Amino acid sequence: YGASYFDPVLDDQQDSVGLTFYHTGYYELQQPVVVTSGSASNYALYNDVETGVALTFGRYLSDDVRAFFSIKRDYLSIREAADSQFTPIGLGVGTEDSAALNLLYDTRDDLFNPHRGTYANVGMAMSGGILGGNFNFTKYQFEVRHYMPMSRNTLAFRAWGGFGFGALPINEIFYLGGADTLRAYQDNSFVGGKFLLVNAEYRFPIAKLKLLNGAFFCDAGDAWDYNGTNTAFRLYKDVGVGLRLVFPSLGLGVIRIDYAIGDRGSRTTIGLGQSF
Q1: Distance, CA of 7 to CA of 161 (rounded, Å)
Q2: Residue 25 burial by CB count (10 A; 0-12/13-18/19+): exposed, middle or buried?
Q3: Is residue 207 left, alpha or beta, with left meaning phi > 0 and alpha meaning psi from -120 to 50?
Q4: Exposed e or buried b for every residue in 150-161, given b needs 16+ CB within 10 A?
Q5: Contacts of 256 (CB under 8 A, 6+ apart)
Q6: Model confidence over 156-184: pLDDT tens digits?
């Protein structure tokens, strides 16, 4: 549960401010464990309980560019689940005091189902040091999406990556696998202090029906190098086909169903909104 307040236009300069309080609890979450070389089919289980507050200030730079600065205090209780057969990496109990800076560029014509434009977000976050707290780390992330109109069709691309340094707790490390990243793989199949992901998708209407679209897609990426485990980068890939049910008038946006085939077999996923 949580509560949040956001003012998108705080003053004449179009600055913004947001404040959030939250308490979350996730139990028996899975973390992939490499038992034998090249195998990650086993999972350690852990519980992640967090209570915190976050304050974000946004600065208007132009119609397409904004900068955001945020600070957060988060009390973490990340412990091994009672019935886990393996010990997770990144457990910890304590206070995470962090600050983050992001630069956002956005020219998309539709935030939920874009047909043209570019979205780019680069940022860094740090915890510990002069900020205090029990966790010390630095993270850098970038994401670039580009949408090219082809008559009524859309060709969409995404490149997304991140690098973490220091003692990253479980809630700050990177995971890949699932409906929004590598669609042929189980959720959180790949874990690491670094990750790189690329996606390409060709979206098209089906039989001139406004409520039904199709898509062909391919995904590739990996998460690697976390506390001395899974240190080698390996490119995991998949290809697939999907359906998009579009309900803009009902406020549901897009419901997507994807079928993907990858290095470890095939999988069907269901998600809300476009994957990117």
Answers
A1: 30
A2: exposed
A3: left
A4: eeeebebebbbb
A5: 179, 215, 242, 243, 244, 245, 270, 271, 272, 273, 274, 275
A6: 999 999 999 988 888 899 999 999 999 99
